[in-house]
Design goal:
mainly alpha; 4 helices; 62% helix
Length: 156
């Protein structure tokens, strides 16, 4: 998968990550919507033997495709977050500043922010959005508390 690179001339990382999170949440809502579609053999039997079996296979494939799209968006959003964390650490080391804490990140990323002129105004449910961001924050906390391996020749 070709992933975007966060850099000075590109889209701001926070905005791009938020947009991919929203896209992932929308795909999740699509999965939920298709799962509640009433799917029954009575709607296919008049088409002959095997029609319902074929319809079931196609239905499963549609759900799998939506889940794959959602998962791709999450991979992209998480990679952008990884790049942003790496950039924060780089700046903190280069400028001898303290990097933002996970609590700071959680506070600033609890909900996606969008300008009023943004085309990205999709509301897919605050609870689902909170859960996705909470998962990222928990992962960031685990990563930041794990001892980082030192490069060869580097002292603690």
């Amino acid at each position: 998968m070709q992933l975007p690179t966060i850099h000075i001339n590109g889209t701001p990382g926070q905005r791009l990550r938020d947009q991919y999170h929203i896209a992932a949440l929308a795909a999740e809502e699509a999965v939920k919507a298709i799962q509640v579609v009433e799917f029954h053999a009575r709607d296919y039997y008049v088409q002959g033997d095997g029609a319902f079996d074929q319809a079931q296979r196609e239905h499963r494939e549609r759900i799998k495709a939506l889940v794959a799209v959602r998962d791709d968006f999450l991979v992209i959003a998480r990679d952008i977050g990884r790049q942003m964390r790496g950039h924060d650490r780089h700046l903190a080391g280069a400028q001898n500043l303290q990097a933002p804490t996970d609590a700071d990140r959680h506070h600033s990323t609890t909900r996606p922010r969008h300008d009023t002129n943004s085309s990205c105004q999709l509301d897919v449910g605050a609870a689902l959005a909170e859960a996705a961001f909470a998962e990222d924050v928990a992962r960031q906390q685990r990563e930041s508390s794990a001892p980082e391996a030192l490069a060869p020749g580097r002292r603690p």
